[in-house]
Amino acid sequence: MRDDSVNPHLTILYRGPLSSCDYDCPYCPFAKRRDSPERLRRDRAALERFTAWTAECGHPVSVLFTPWGEGLVRSWYRGTMVELSRLPHVRRVAIQTNLSGRTGWLAEADLDTLALWVTYHPGQVTHERFLARCRELHALGVRFSVGVVGLPEHLQAARRLRADLPPEVYLWVNAAEGHLYTDEEAAPWAALDPLFHHSRTPHRSAGLPCRTGESVVSVDGDGTVRRCHFVPEVLGNLYDGSFRQALRPRGCPLAVCDCHIGYVHLEPTGLYDVFAGGVLERIPHVSLSGW
Ligand code: SF4
Ligand code: SF4
User: Fold this and answer.
1) With a threshold of 0.85, does the pTM exceed it?
2) What is the pLDDT of residue 2?
3) Following DSSP, what letter does each residue of 76-113 receive, concatenated?
4) Hey, whose CA ends up nearest to atom 2 of ligand 1?
């Protein structure tokens, strides 16, 4: 029987040196950026080191890869996803992806553990091509959510996608960065994503309890551990184990938290209940009316 008090479960948000993408989204600093061969080598070596640590860590773990760019076009991310999904102490391994790559490799993975956080970027891929990829995932039995950035020019594409996706696939909407939505502007997005209100306005988080720094950590390619991707203070290193003595409950030191990969862990949001079983891949645990 599992005893999490002796071997506590740790959630890790991993982001290595990779910072390149095959897409060219106008709202992204990584659009069409290329990594040098040296940077790609470093990214691969860092990911392999992280994968080896995770395989041997000796306690339950869940991992979300949040690359700056697209990871699944690189063989080492696909290999890591497959390898970690098959380990009994890995409860979830997920990655944020634009789904531009092929899906056949997923057949090798344990699909009870692997999941995908998929973002649709209208303007970079046709509706038909993106929908076909989503249908491939669905046919394979892959757990995935699909989302869009809530820019006005995406609305028609998002509506069309919602209409054509299998009804049980959750479509989320991220508020566009720096965009304040009037009630009138928010309404069509909330009609697509019943949880849009969580993204619409940044969460006031100062001093509030957040699971990061206790049961959730952010790790970079050198193994530097921080509580989350947004707070720069270093807690220690993954590979020398020094981070462990720093893990404890702590309030958020920032004024606001406006990214789902952060505020989902902010306790007063109650989002662990909403996304129970699908926190990392952003899949609500019950079907919400309206999608
Ligand atoms: S797919 Fe993602 S990482 Fe790539 S350019 Fe678009 S927003 Fe940036
Ligand atoms: S609320 Fe957000 S910014 Fe604050 S500690 Fe948690 S994840 Fe980090």
Assistant:
1) yes
2) 46
3) HHHHHHHHHHT-TTEEEEEEEE---S-SGGGGGS-TTT
4) 69
